[in-house]
Amino acid sequence: MIDPIVSLAFSIYSNKGVYALLIGSGVSRGAEIPTGWEIVEDLVRKYSAVIREDCTEDWETWYKEKTSNEPDYSELIQAIGKKQSERQALLRGYFEPNEEEREQGIKVPTLAHRAIAEIVLKGYIKIIITTNFDKLIEKALEEKGINPVVLTNEDAVKGAPPLPHNEVVLLKVNGDYTDIRIRNTPEELQKYPREIEKLLERIFDEYGLIVCGWSAEWDVALRKAIEKCKSRRFTTFWTTRYGPEETAKKIIRLRKAEVISIADANSFFEELAAKVDALDVFEKPHPLSSKIAVVTLKKNLEDERSVIRVHDLVMEETERMLKVIEGLLMLTKLDFPSKAFNFEQFNLIELLTEIYEQSRLLAVHKGIHVDINVSQEPLFISGDRLHLRRLFLNLIDNSIKYTDRNGNIRIVATKKDQKTVVSISDTGIGIAKEDLSKIFDRFFHIDRTGKNAVPSTGLGLSIAKSIVDIHNGFIEVTSKIGEGSTFTVSLPSI
């Protein structure tokens, strides 16, 4: 059975821009952002403390008895802050970090928000619906240079351009913390203004849906909008940590949604972004299509079980041969560097930083931690960016393959004796001493068994060495079985 996240990645990649993302409070939990109801509770407790009364046992009942009203976010905010500037200052502390919180990574965009921004940047997601009041997704998008059309109320929806005319639309169905008109109480969440309802109906009818961090329990109007849409042009994917509640199960049945079990929003979106990125990089048409061979065989086999077995064998062997051919083609190009290389002067740290960000996404599926330690000063070299990217990603990919779950990979770059030195270290299974001298030979492959068995063409490190040689550099490896390996590349500095 195909992993649901893999299925989702293929769906997003194959249907660019037709999936909308629905994110709830679970996505902002990692940033320690409180929910609207938690803010109401905190304000009521502060109010009771100011008037020197105790509401610790049942703050909600205490407030009802004290004011003869239900706890209401908007009314509380207006009562405490008489002017708009006062209200915004009051709320800012719940949603915006102070210096200490910023240093601790609190109330700032999480890995999930940044991974979402990566997917949006490449055009795969164009519509985000959120029940959250915070601005974390806006900040993550802005970090990538994306300026979303933000819709927080019916007036904004009325004045917005049609959906296809926008780079990305962020619909905050319950409002924004800077606007006291946010929807928070059970009564407010029962029904949306007609303009917002119409927009939701269109989105749920015309777009696929990815749901994360939303329980469906409290946002009745949003739930009704989804249930109202009978069309299912694209699949709905519903993520859950502990299994969906009964209300969510009803929507899942109605939409015939694919349920994806996740550990948390951060790891889910990082893994999804990595898989979409992998498809973006590697899903290229190839003249030697393995699909042609499979179709031909199916026409000549009558036994269905035989078809399946042959399909699997052909796919595995064809993919292996394609990788060998691609490796040989690359080595052929490297034999004629004047045609294959485009040398330019640039700061290697910038390239390594990009590779580091990509590597973190590639490693997340194994729970491997990747970190980087580079020189504070620029490291200028003369080289081919594309081939150097291939070199370092090749080394990091090997580290990921041969490092167990929850291991570590470290990228270090510094200047030493007029050389720019980059090392890739891991805590992997290591390389035997007798194999170190042959590790860069063409078609050399270490025979491994059991969980350490990894498919290999035996050409990757040979290609890496050729790239280093053409740059007048040097590559070496040190390793110890059971402790890990370190590949060190030295390149001339300028």
Task: Explain the overall architecture.
The protein has 494 residues and is α/β, with parallel strands linked by helices. The chain has four domains: 204 residues, Rossmann fold (3-Layer(aba) Sandwich); 68 residues, no CATH class; 46 residues; 151 residues, 2-Layer Sandwich (Heat Shock Protein 90). The protein contains 20 helices and 14 strands. The strands form three sheets. A seven-stranded parallel beta sheet has the order 3-4-2-1-5-6-7, with helices on both faces. Strand 3, helix 10 and strand 4 form a beta-alpha-beta unit. About 2% of the residues have low confidence.
Helix and strand arrangement:
Layout (H helix, E strand, L loop, with lengths): L3 H11 L4 E5 L1 H4 L7 H15 L8 H9 L5 H8 L3 H12 L3 H5 L7 H11 L3 E6 L5 H8 L5 E3 L2 H6 L9 E4 L21 H13 L1 E5 L7 H9 L7 E5 L5 H10 L2 E4 L3 H18 L7 H11 L3 H31 L2 H4 L3 E4 H16 L5 E6 L5 E4 L1 H17 L6 E9 L2 E8 L33 H11 L3 E7 L3 E9 L2
Parallel strand pairs: 1-2, 1-5, 2-4, 3-4, 5-6, 6-7, 9-11
Antiparallel strand pairs: 8-10, 11-12, 12-14, 13-14
Helix pairs in contact: 1-14, 8-9, 8-14, 11-12, 14-18, 15-16, 16-20, 18-19, 19-20
